Amino acid sequence: MNKKDSNIKNNLIKLAMFLSVVLLSAFFLMTAINMLKLPNTGLGGGENTNKSSSGENSKPPKVSSDSKDYGSDFDDWKDRVDKRRAERKGNITPGEEYSYGENPEGGSNGEGEYQIPEDVPNIDISGDQEIPNIPFGSGDSGSTIAITNKKPPHTAAFEVLGYPNYPFLKVMVMENYFNNHWTVAKEESEVKINFDKKLDENYSANSVKIKPVVPSNGYLPVLSGNIDFKYRTSVDWYKNSETYYSNEPVSDSYEMDYEAPANIEQLAFANTDDSYAYTISVPDEIDKVVDSIIENCVSDYDVIKAVGDYLNINYVLSDETINNYGENDGIVAFLRNKGGKGNTLDFMSAYAYLLKVAGIPCRLAVGYRINQSLPYQVVYKDQTYIYPEIKFEGYGWVPMDVFGYNPSFTPPNATFTEITYASAEAKRGTSFTVKGTVKDAKGTMLDNMAVLIYVKQSKSENTLSYVKADVHGGYFEVNCELKFNTGAGKYQVVADLLENDLYRTSTSDPEMKVFTDTSIELNTKASVVGSSFKVEGRLLDSYSNEGVIGQELNVEFQSRTELGSITSSDEGKFSTVIELNKLGKLSPEKDFFLVKSYNIPYKMNFTGTDIFFPSSSNGSIYVWQILWLRIWLTLAALIIMVVAPIIIYNFRRRRVKDLESMDMVLAFDGSSQKVTVPAATSLVKKESHEQISILFPQIKDGYPDVWGVNEELLMRFEDSSQNWDEIKETFCKKGVYSISVSAGTGKIAKKYINIVDYREEVIANGKKLLKGLSKSIVINDKMTLREILSLTSAELTTLKYMILEQIFDIMEKAVYSLNDITRDDYELFYMCIQKYMNQA
Fold this sequence. Notes:
With 840 residues, the chain is of the alpha+beta class.
């Protein structure tokens, strides 16, 4: 072995030893980590990996809570609970001061080691602090939401149209808890774009529309569950938390279509989603509380109910109570104080925390509590609410209505709102004015309030508002643009006073008529054949171009209305058939031998109503009447005139049967070899010497009798009596052939045909042309056709130059190309040669 090989071997041995040490060290390190049981320090609220969707095909196995003999189902469920609790429980050092909850990203549970970022929305449960508004509905914004004994202002935030699927509207979602703060999980947003042209402000089933009272940006109030979000511009969508955010102020309505939510029976037999990942720190005493809560449970839904019952039995819900926890953990401090009071946030936080300790995915949603039984409502800021959402297999995040707190508020003082002026009429495409006053029960003018103006087809109709008008010194006045979807008709103009902390709402609703121009669109054909014609078209709203339904129109002819009336149907369409005999004695405009035509002008009238202005449209139609008797007589005469000559012609054009003495002889010129085709034609009677013509129909007039080798040639023979016959022959050799017709020893007719190769013919005639050109320009053997063409440009006229260019194109194809030179090429070449020679 040489020195080089020895060095390679030693290096390989050293590398193997090094890798062995690395692998052994990694093994011992992993063993030590497993023995220490270190917690997963990631933030809660991981991505949902459950791919099942709601529906009958995805129902989980049922677990009965009525039977005392649970058997293996109970054992399986208990094992699952123990497993998920163990997987989600974090590590705690005994005796250490810490804040309980989920482990923060990149940190531990030590006191003060984790600070809530200022830009992360969160709920502070530590005690009595000022509470900013939820960042939507008023133009305000804020990150931290805290509970305080100061009542939020009773100020209108937004309107809600449609029956909601749950008694909540979600604004933000708090996935994680740490240091007395519930925080939003970190998540990248997706841009949700839905430019929905069909978006309107009308009520529809399984759908909710929301419109802010004041243009606002921030997190949008939305429904929980599976929804289809629609808006006229883009918003940010946080997929995991199922929330939406708008950077730009939202001024008009957005829509959410929803699926029917799961009912209690479905949830009672459903499993919660074990795939939802989080890690939570739990002190032993809380762990034991959870053990006692779930001791008699047999399903996840039993645990959910049991946690709520535990809190209701052992603690007192009082929203006047504000617990100041200071540096202590608020949830643990609340749970330790059995029999103590707590507000809704204390109860909701403890509820979500205990469920998470039990291995059930739960988070807090911040939003509004609303009335689920109302098809329309105005939501106020003091309806802000915090409620839990639990994740179920097949159903996703489901909001839970626990502890029954209702934040709604009724102001103490009555009001009287009156519309003192509203435009009695308004035309589509214009506007109308509304004026009014707002007073209290004593008649005192109120100030700094607002009214919403509605346009309703009936007082009971549910719709979003038209516009908001401010009240100053007890008076309001606003100019309202008529919206596109407000059609002609009678409406209620409604003014609803928006409440505040002192004054309740009141309403006024006079009537207003919206009218519009109309137009008639005729679709009648320009002319028809028959004894009747159809008048059809549409009655349209001139502003929207939409059809007007159920209106009566009539047709006039020569100022008479005797043709009857028509009623417009779907999309404003109308149609009627007019019989000519109803129009009286008509004079035809054109009277031909076989047909007559009548030009019939008519007028379609709509007399109008109190909301649709009248309109009319003039039309005319040509009606052609066919005179069938004359047609049949004419056809009979034509048949006689056409058939008789044909019979006579065919009789004269007879063929002679005796062909024995006639031969067709084809001979190559100058050769003694002859090709004889016996009985090839039957034109001449025996002993007849009538003159016969030989024709080549395939060769066009003006072209020489030249044909291509190996191409079939059609030869036609005619006599003076117009008797004829044809034969076809293919010539396999080039040369001049004579075609002759003989009878006995005498020749009746003879003609020559030149059989050529078209390529050779083009080249030969081209050389003759070049020879002629050489008399005026100098041409040598090395020059190309393009070079020769360039030399001629100064000598020739433009037209003659163009003809010569076309000749050279065909010559180049013949000389340089392997493509066939066809009959068309030859004819074009010959024609161009003739044109070139004839040009001066």
